[in-house]
């Protein structure tokens, strides 16, 4: 199937329309008509070849939300018409120790994990193309159901920025009533503020941008500390139960 996307053909080029072939749907795969795709800074790194491993053309996008348009043989979790999402992985060996434990990102199979873009894809090592495109085919294990109550456009950033900030809150056991600090209120931080609030924490945001205060409070932050206000920084000392640092 020929698909239209936005991609880069070299590190010094802007994204431009590209057409490419998606392989025919295989058993166990779901074909998704893409409605929305978030923009993650990793997309920009990959297109700029900042990691010196980019395979051209590069069609980024790993915060994908859309509608199931076809299902392959054996698919049981999804039906045509379902609203679904895809994050940064589309496949893995599914049998190694890491995969069996649900840690597919650490897949040690012969071809390792397949990321949503920049390949290499199983089984032939070809390039993978991401969500800045019309449609994508993905193993059903790597497709997520999106509840109908969530606006699909707003669901898209949950698939990378959201999970990246939600996971440490769950892993380290953020509890209702605790105070969560969020350092850096950008793509990740704006999700951390909302998720922390939704989990029942009192959220304190730390930013260098005073002009963001109103927007950060609108996301649900209880307080905003601007980092060049030394008095406010001192006053916040030892006030947090947990801090999510989104600043590289
Ligand atoms: Zn990302
Ligand atoms: Zn594996």
Fold and architecture overview:
This protein is of the alpha/beta class. The protein folds into two domains: 2-156, Alpha-Beta Complex (Quinone Oxidoreductase, Chain A, domain 1); 161-245, 3-Layer(aba) Sandwich (Rossmann fold). 19% of the residues lie in helices and 26% in strands. The protein has helices at residues 41-47, 97-100, 152-155, 161-171, 189-198, 213-218, 230-235, and strands spanning 2-7, 16-21, 29-37, 64-71, 83-86, 89-91, 114-115, 135-139, 144-145, 179-183, 202-207, 223-226, 242-245. The strands form four sheets. It has a five-stranded antiparallel β-sheet. Strands 12-11-10-13 form a four-stranded parallel β-sheet. Helix 4 (161-171) crosses helix 5 (189-198). The protein starts with a strand and ends with a strand. 38% of the residues are buried. Bound molecules: zinc ion (2 copies).
List keywords for this structure.
single chain, 248 residues, alpha/beta, Quinone Oxidoreductase, Chain A, domain 1, Rossmann fold, 2 domains, five-stranded antiparallel β-sheet, four-stranded parallel β-sheet, 13 strands, 19% helix, globular, binds zinc ion
The CATH homologous superfamily of the largest domain is termed: Medium-chain alcohol dehydrogenases, catalytic domain
CATH structural fold name of the largest domain: Quinone Oxidoreductase, Chain A, domain 1
The low-confidence runs, each spanning 5 or more residues with pLDDT under 50, are none
Distance between the termini: 39 Å
How would you describe the shape? globular
Largest sheet: 5 strands, antiparallel
- β-strand percent reads 25-35%
């Amino acid at each position: 199937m020929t698909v239209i996307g936005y991609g880069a053909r070299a590190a010094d080029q802007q994204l431009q329309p590209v057409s490419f072939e998606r392989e025919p749907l295989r058993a166990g795969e779901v074909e998704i008509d893409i409605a929305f795709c978030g923009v993650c800074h990793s997309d920009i790194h990959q297109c700029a070849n900042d990691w010196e491993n980019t395979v051209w053309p590069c069609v980024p996008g790993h915060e994908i939300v859309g509608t199931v348009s076809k299902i392959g043989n054996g698919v049981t979790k999804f039906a045509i018409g379902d609203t679904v999402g895809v994050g940064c992985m589309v496949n893995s060996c599914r049998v190694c120790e890491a995969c069996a434990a649900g840690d597919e990102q650490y897949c040690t199979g012969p071809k390792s994990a397949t990321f949503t873009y920049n390949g290499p894809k199983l089984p032939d090592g070809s390039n993978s193309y991401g969500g800045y495109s019309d449609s994508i085919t993905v193993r059903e294990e790597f497709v997520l159901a999106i509840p109908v109550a969530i606006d699909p456009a707003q669901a898209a950033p949950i698939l990378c920025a959201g999970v990246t900030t939600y996971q440490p809150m769950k892993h380290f056991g953020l509890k209702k009533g605790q105070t969560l600090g969020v350092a850096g209120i950008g793509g990740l931080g704006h999700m951390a503020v909302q998720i922390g609030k939704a989990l029942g924490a009192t959220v304190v945001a730390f930013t260098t941008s005073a002009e963001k205060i109103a927007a950060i409070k609108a996301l649900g932050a209880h307080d905003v500390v601007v980092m060049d206000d030394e008095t406010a920084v001192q006053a916040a000392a030892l006030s947090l139960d947990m801090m999510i640092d989104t600043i590289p």
